[in-house]
Amino acid sequence: EVQLQASGGGLVQAGGSLRLSCAASGFTIDDYAIGWFRQAPGRERVGVSCIHSADGNTYYSESVKGRFRISSDNANNTVHLQIDSLKPEDTAVYHCAASPVPRGSGFTVKVLCYNGMDYWGKGTQVTVSS
């Protein structure tokens, strides 16, 4: 069974850092695009960063470029999101999600990061105080 478990959220002051983790089971992350999506209360859920580790393909939304870094840990079948220079507007529930993407397909993860993915995990709350 495909499962995704997000962790690492918390309450942080503006300017601080967090490292979110998405532990995947039931599949190998090299065969999937993995994405981080966030949703603030009353706002649309949006993709902020996505990766297809086998192809080295990554995407970041403009609001997080230079502050967020997505990476894969294949040995532990986990994707991480390092978040630096947190801003109050980063406050949201962060979900990780996945869709199958064959290795070497040439598929651009931006498409899935923008439109959404097939499998979703439970979110982790990130709260940034000013």
Secondary-structure map with pairings?
Elements: E1 3-7, E2 10-13, E3 18-25, E4 32-39, E5 46-52, E6 57-60, E7 68-73, E8 78-83, E9 92-100, H1 109-115, E10 119-120, E11 124-129
Parallel strand pairs: 2-11
Antiparallel strand pairs: 1-3, 3-8, 4-5, 4-9, 5-6, 7-8, 9-10, 9-11
Q: What low-confidence regions span 5 or more consecutive residues with pLDDT below 50?
A: none
Helix content: under 10%
Task: Write down how many β-strands occur, each being a DSSP E stretch of 2 or more residues.
Answer: 11
Rg from alpha-carbon coordinates = 14 Å
Q: How many alpha or pi helices? A: 1
Mean pLDDT level = 96
Fraction of residues in β-strands: over 45%
- State the order of secondary-structure elements, H for helix, E for strand: EEEEEEEEEHEE
Q: What's the end-to-end separation, in Å?
A: 40 Å
From the structure provided, what is the oligomeric state, counting identical versus distinct chains?
Answer: single chain
SS-based class: mainly beta
Globular, elongated, flat, extended or rod-shaped: what is the shape? globular
Largest sheet: 7 strands, mixed
